[in-house]
Amino acid sequence: MKLDHIPLDKLYVDKTNMRFGRKAPDVSDLLPTIRARGVIQALLVRPPDPDGRCGIVAGSRRFHGSRIVADERREAGDIDPDALLLPCAILEEGDDAAAIEASMIENMARLDADEVRQWESFARLVREGRSAAEIALTFGLPELSVRRVLALGNLLPRIRELYRAERIDRVTVRHLTLASKSQQKAWLFGGQSIPVRFALFDLADFGGATIADLFGEDRYFTDPDAFWAAQHAAIAAARDAYCAAGWADVVVIPPTEHFHAWEYEKAAKRKGGRVYIDVRATGEVTFHEGYMTRAEARRIARGEAALLPEARKPSRPELTSTLQTYVDLHRHAAVRAALIGQPGLALRLMVAHAIVGSPLWSVRPEPQATRHDAVRESIATARAEAVFGAERRVVLDTLGLAAEEPTVTGGNGDDYGVAGLFLRLVALPDAAVMRVLPIVIGETLAAGSAAVEAVGGELGIAMADWWQADDAFFTLLRDRDVLGRITAEVAGEVVAAANAGEKAKTLRQIIADHLTGAQGRDKVARWVPRWMQFPPSAYTERGGVGTVAAHARVVAARHMARGDGSAEPEADGEQPLPEAA
Q1: Distance in angstroms (rounded) separating the CA atoms of residues 132 and 146
Q2: Secondary structure of 178-189 in the HEC alphabet?
Q3: How many of the other CB atoms lie within 10 Å of CB of 117?
Q4: Model pTM score
Q5: What's the CA dihedral at 336, 340, 346, 349 to 10 degrees?
């Protein structure tokens, strides 16, 4: 950027200037200074065009003030050639976005522009490739403020002009930015008319009249008061229904407020989730099921608050803390002694703790986490997951939990939840409780653990019943030594030897063709790689196979239980290799 003095007649207001295309601004506050001392602060201008003219990016008011003073002196016959030169800071050659930012930064630093004018400039920045986050950083504004201004772009031009003229308040504009164009038209031409489709009540029971809007796109209630009377009655009925269904609370948000999703977190019914009924001034009602505020979610995560409101504590407790401990411990001792003869109740209490958790129980579902999209897709579409998921939905229904819950286990450990679920289990027959158990332990069984190996071995699981090679498997199969062994396993030693020098891609194709019977190759049915079998084994002596290491721990535990060997597991890779098929 360089400084220079540029003739007044060589300057014009550039299109990137916030005040471009508008009537001459009020410069009465600047005129006394310009008359006395001229322009002191340099204007920001673009580099000269081929005609030597420079577009003003920032400094439109100084430019217009200088023209007025120059006209005054010309009429008085007192023209000083130097008075027709203005100090200018000439920007480097660059993009329009940089010029727009320069104009806005200078103008907004001195004079608060109305939101519509800010939207026009922000929108131009967006068209030039700036994001809302970048705009916020440039002007030192919260990103949310920038997004709210950009939301004005969702408005019909006529509504923006009404807002600029202060004929519409800010709350109404915020609601209109969330409305469709047809809804905006209805508001614009029909005032506060309410679309018929927003009614929660049965129109057959409504005695009021409706009319079509000017565009014929929708019908509207002619009597807003009658509509709201019926709508509020329907909202109250919906609230009562949610409360009866067991939701912790149902909050009705009035039209003067709004449900902002970013201020809440999803929370299941059994974890204290509420229902928020968002009522708009337009008549639209949205039901947000299963939410709590972010602050509440953080407090619960830190264990700093219970889900239910605390009862008011008396000024002086009836029991001292020591006496309360005495009572608690004696009652605890009596209950656990009595449970010795009640295995059915003990089982149900154990299941409730495993599902909900407690200060002494911390049971988490296996996350089945992976960063690989193909692996995630393979697990999601596996037959085993489909069977388990179907049974989980049955158990959720049996326990009175929402069908959309991703897991049965994983509660927040609150005392109320444990007691409630225990009582639910007490009312169930033994067969139903036994059906819950496999889902609870299945969700909390750690993948890759020795427990998986022990259970799989006891059940004699044949992996061919649950798995077959898919695209994800072949994508991840890259080790050439292993590929050679598998080729020999499915195609025979002769084929494996003949293709020993081929690329991994060729070997994978040979294996895939034998598994499907493609290309005229002999089909190998129910093939499963060694590491996936029960018990598992390795293809090479290098080791490093997690399932083999886990199985070694099971073998060591079995020897320990029998008293016929050391408890130390054999190292992974030291397992005897089975003979090639």
Answers
A1: 6
A2: CCCHHHHHHHHH
A3: 18
A4: 0.47
A5: 0
Closest CA to 101 of 53, 144, 48, 58: 58
Q: How far apart are CA 170 and CA 467, in angstroms?
A: 59
Helix (H) or strand (E) holding 286: strand 285-293
Q: Which residue has the tokens 């489709």?
A: 197
Residue 281 phi/psi, 5-degree rounding, is -65, -20
Domain ranges of the chain: 2-164, 192-309, 331-447, 463-562
- What are the residue ranges of helices labelled H in 202-356? 224-244, 294-301, 321-338, 343-356
**Exposed (0-12), middle (13-18) or buried (19+): which is 522, by Cβ within 10 Å?**
exposed
Per-10-residue mean pLDDT for the chain, 581 residues long? 82 76 73 78 84 86 88 77 75 63 54 67 77 75 78 80 76 71 66 76 83 57 84 92 88 86 83 89 88 84 56 65 85 87 90 87 86 87 90 90 83 81 92 92 90 91 92 90 93 92 92 92 92 90 84 86 60 41 33
User: Helices 115-127 and 157-164 meet at what angle, rounded to 10?
Assistant: 140
